[in-house]
Design a protein that fits this description.
The chain has one domain. It is built from seven helices and five strands. The chain has a five-stranded mixed sheet, sandwiched between helices. Strand 3, helix 4 and strand 4 form a beta-alpha-beta unit.
């Protein structure tokens, strides 16, 4: 992440377009874990990152300890970087990386968690598979790549909201978050707080400096 920021700022074309004081990161899954450690990892964080949005991150601290990411020994800096977690109620990937909701308390304010009912992990990006039997597309992803591996929660056949609705809500949350914390637009915070009112699938947790 530091290399990419350095390279973009030094580029004669791209560097002229970038406000070095308003750099934000956004990532999904492993990209979300990367964003976490780029902002909060001891000795490896990049202080130029002014805000971060993490989609389907699970609990990045648990993920670092359970997987071979090279981050198991990296602690967490007690720093305040505006952070947005977007989580999926039916995210089978994140369930393996710690209980739902354990990442939010580890962050300093200002912090937000947008939790959406009836959505899964793969629909955060370009996956559009939607099984007719209402089985979770996350389970299908594992079944295709690791036959015989039974992912906890794969037996669920509950209604989901669909990939387009999931991306609509996610996009609205991320844009509103960055509008506030990168562009300084107070309406961004208003939009973010109003998401549960306009989207019944959404639950919002928020802690902001008084």
């Amino acid at each position: 992440m530091r290399f990419l920021i350095d390279a973009l700022l030094a580029d004669p074309e791209w560097g002229a377009m970038i406000d070095a004081k308003r750099i934000g990161t956004v990532g999904h899954s492993l990209g979300a874990i990367t964003c976490w450690f780029a902002c909060f990892g001891e000795k490896i964080r990049d202080p130029r990152i002014a805000a971060t949005a993490m989609l389907g991150a699970g609990d990045p601290i648990v993920a670092a300890q359970m997987t071979d990411l090279g981050l198991a020994e990296v602690g967490q800096s007690d720093v305040s970087v505006p952070a947005l977690l977007v989580t999926a109620e039916k995210d089978l990937f994140s369930r393996m990386m710690g209980p739902h909701g354990t990442a939010f308390p580890k962050l300093s304010t200002p912090k937000f968690e947008v939790s959406i009912a009836g959505k899964c992990h793969v629909w955060f990006h370009d996956g559009v598979t939607w099984p007719v039997d209402q089985s979770n597309p996350d389970a299908l992803w594992f079944a295709e790549r690791s036959p015989g591996f039974v992912l906890p929660g794969s037996e669920d056949h509950e209604p989901l909201i669909g990939p387009n609705r999931q991306r609509e809500i996610t996009g609205a949350a991320v844009l509103a978050f960055f509008a506030k914390f990168l562009n300084g637009d107070p309406d961004g915070l208003t939009v973010l707080r109003a998401l549960p009112e306009h989207s019944p699938e959404v639950q919002l947790k928020a802690e902001i400096r008084s």
